[in-house]
């Protein structure tokens, strides 16, 4: 069946800041406490989305979440005469805790959910499992609102199954599509779903950084999505990659169509991983492996440049695929040189385009972090909320919205400002109208009903 891979990019939220909240994310730690530019961040993301839509790719957007997140602060015992006063009091009393309620981390939509196309599932529906993201406090508060967003964008239960998150327990730590790759002959055909885990929940983990994804979470998603075990592969991410700062598999690996593009040190047992993929693909397609040797691109360079946290795309009118990489890949000597050799050679990747998403990159998220891939048949595409799909009109609306509501800068001294609460809410209230999400989409809207 004919289908396309649509990309839904997370909009950078009004409270985008550099809180340094993610252990193991080297860029986040390096830039902690820097001055952030929320308006530039959302406009950078929108420019990337628009450029891909203009090239003929199917692009949508996902809304940011409500921040500061006052409901959690209330649940933790903070009080005040207004929600702004609650925020100010919480920030003064416990700034480290409050920062977790301010993060705009839902912009990284690759962590929003794991997605299985209808071609792979036993009931013929497109399945979503929102990630519980329980390894980090600031991300663990996203799951329910993500489920609400996906339900609003993919509302037809006959075509779409939007599940609840997995249980909020460390054995089921789930980081979403950042640890999931789907390979196929073409997007509408049956494919092979690859789940990459950092640890087995029932083994001891004593690594330098957390291994965020468990095998048990991957297996649970496989079961609830109704995937065929013969077409599903579970691979362990290499400990070396995790300890070098590859906090998700998509920092060292990306794939689409039949092509898997990965670093030499991406997987704990590379030979077995590739053999398992070949076995799962048998009778469907021949996997194409593009391995980047550590001798050409050292693991440290791969991680800081985010070479693999790029979008690998089947480009309209092109036989070979296109890699949309961050500007940092172009500016890093080893990755720039590798990209030139890649496209000049006989690889399945024929071009590399560089995107400026520096506000996201400084917090540890490249072009691939910002998007959730959803394979849609034509009938499924028609059932998607049309107001979230990128075109000239939506781009104009969203750029005007961002210029109206977003601050130019957020410094550490600004983060406790009680005005952030009402500013952010005005922005999100306007956004729900633009994207057709309803007047009760966010907690503050339901609170005021």
| Number of separate helices | 18
What form results from the Cα inertia axes?
A: globular
Oligomer designation: single chain
> How many structural domains can be distinguished in the coordinates?
1
Count the beta strands.
15
Q: Write the CATH homologous superfamily.
A: Succinylarginine dihydrolase
CATH top level is: Alpha Beta
Helix content: 25-40%
Predict the CATH topology: L-arginine/glycine Amidinotransferase, Chain A
Percentage of residues in strands: 15-25%
Report the CATH architecture.
5-stranded Propeller
Instruction: Tell me the structural class.
Output: alpha/beta
Strand order of the largest sheet: 2-1-15
Short description:
By secondary structure, the chain is α/β, with parallel strands linked by helices. It has helices at residues 26-30, 38-54, 70-75, 83-93, 95-100, 137-140, 143-153, 215-224, 239-244, 270-281, 299-305, 327-331, 333-344, 358-361, 378-383, 392-405, 419-435, 443-447, and strands at 3-10, 59-62, 113-116, 126-130, 160-162, 180-184, 191-197, 232-236, 253-256, 259-263, 288-292, 311-313, 321-326, 349-355, 371-377. The strands form five sheets. The protein has a three-stranded mixed sheet, with helices on both faces. Strands 3-4-5 form a three-stranded mixed sheet.
Describe the structure.
- The chain is of the alpha/beta class and 449 residues long.
- It has a single domain, classed as L-arginine/glycine Amidinotransferase, Chain A, CATH 3.75.10.20.
- Helices cover 35% and strands 17% of the residues.
- It contains 18 helices and 15 strands.
- The strands form five sheets. It has a three-stranded mixed β-sheet with strand order 2-1-15, sandwiched between helices.
- Helix 2 (38-54) packs antiparallel against helix 16 (392-405) and helix 16 (392-405) runs antiparallel to helix 17 (419-435).
- The chain starts with a strand and ends with a helix.
């Amino acid at each position: 069946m004919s289908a396309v891979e649509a990309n839904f990019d997370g909009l950078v939220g009004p409270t985008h800041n550099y809180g340094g909240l993610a252990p193991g994310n080297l860029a986040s730690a390096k830039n902690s406490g820097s001055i952030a530019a929320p308006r530039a961040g959302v406009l950078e993301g929108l420019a990337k989305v628009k450029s891909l839509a203009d090239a003929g790719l199917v692009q949508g957007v996902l809304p940011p979440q409500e921040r500061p997140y006052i409901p959690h602060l209330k649940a933790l015992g903070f009080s005040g005469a207004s929600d702004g006063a609650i925020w100010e009091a919480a920030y003064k009393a416990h700034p480290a805790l409050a920062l977790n309620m301010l993060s705009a981390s839902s912009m990284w939509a690759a962590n929003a959910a794991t997605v299985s196309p209808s071609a792979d599932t036993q009931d013929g529906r497109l399945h979503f499992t929102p990630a519980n993201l329980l390894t980090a406090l600031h991300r663990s508060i996203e799951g329910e609102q993500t489920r609400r967003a996906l339900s609003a964008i993919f509302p037809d239960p006959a075509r779409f199954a939007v599940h609840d998150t997995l249980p909020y327990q460390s054995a089921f730590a789930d980081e979403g599509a950042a640890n999931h790759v789907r390979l196929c002959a073409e997007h509408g055909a049956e494919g092979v779903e690859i789940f990459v885990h950092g640890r087995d929940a029932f083994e001891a983990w004593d690594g330098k950084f957390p291994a965020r994804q468990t095998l048990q979470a991957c297996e649970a998603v496989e079961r609830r999505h109704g995937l065929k075990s013969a077409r599903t592969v579970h691979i362990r991410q290499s400990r070396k990659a995790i300890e070098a700062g590859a906090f998700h598999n998509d920092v060292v690996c990306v794939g689409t169509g039949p092509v898997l593009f990965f670093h030499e040190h991406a997987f704990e047992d590379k030979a077995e991983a590739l053999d398992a993929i070949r076995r799962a693909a048998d009778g469907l397609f021949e996997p194409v492996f593009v391995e980047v040797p550590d001798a050409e691109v050292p693991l440290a360079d791969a991680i800081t440049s985010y070479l693999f946290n790029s979008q690998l795309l089947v480009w309209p009118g092109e036989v070979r695929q296109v890699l949309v990489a961050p500007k940092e890949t172009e500016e890093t000597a080893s990755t720039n040189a590798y990209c030139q050799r890649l496209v000049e050679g006989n690889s399945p990747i024929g071009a590399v385009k560089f995107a400026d998403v520096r506000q996201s990159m400084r917090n540890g998220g490249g072009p691939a972090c910002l998007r959730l891939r959803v394979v849609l048949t034509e009938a499924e595409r028609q059932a998607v909320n049309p107001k979230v799909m990128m075109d000239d009109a939506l781009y104009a609306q969203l750029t005007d919205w961002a210029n109206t509501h977003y601050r130019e800068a957020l410094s550490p001294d600004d983060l406790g400002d009680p005005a952030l609460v009402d500013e952010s809410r005005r922005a999100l209230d306007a956004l729900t109208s633009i994207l057709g999400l309803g007047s009760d989409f966010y907690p503050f809207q339901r609170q005021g009903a």
